[in-house]
Amino acid sequence: MNFDIDTWMKSYLNKLNSLFGSRLLFVGLQGSYGRGEATESSDIDLVVILDKAVAQDLKAYGAMLDTLPNREKVCGFISGQQELINWERSDLFQFYHDATPVLGSIDFLLPLIGKEDIRRAIRIGACNIYHMCGHNMVHEKDAGILKALYKTAAFTVQAVYYDQTETYIKQKVELIPVLQPQEREILQTGMMLKEQPDKALSDFERLSELLFNWAAGLIIEYKID
Asked: Do strands 74-80 and 24-30 pair parallel, antiparallel, or not at all (unpaired)?
């Protein structure tokens, strides 16, 4: 049976409103559904922001989700407003831009995110990729880890482009033509691995070296002044 996200979201929002009422400030979709790139295997990556979130709210939210179809596909983030406002701001950059609004707005986050927060997001992303890619090349030699790192690298590519242009492009097919050659190759490789996952094993050394060297260059370029 085909899954229809619009039908599912309508039922979800009705139950969510019944549960939280006026306390519900924002609902958004992240991930592939938020970008319009979803496939049959995609998760439903939801963002829920309440006026205030306590542990009992999380329990009630989880119980509500258990009543919905396709529960196994649901993941995401639930938070109180003040916790989000005081969140690590390099994370807020990606969080804000990757959340497609369904109900309400999180525009209150925009004034909090400065140029250095974006540079920090790039630096942290590059450091994590460099660390894990290097570890994987030496120790694990795992094609699945390499594929996951390329998926993660897409977020860093988006941040690099935003730092250069102050434009955030969600969809990869729209982003590729406007990227610099290095970032374009990283993003295209990640997309290729999604379609041809066996390439992560058959071309493991070359693709690992490509990712590792790219991350190393970003770490140096985005060094702390």
From this structure: unpaired
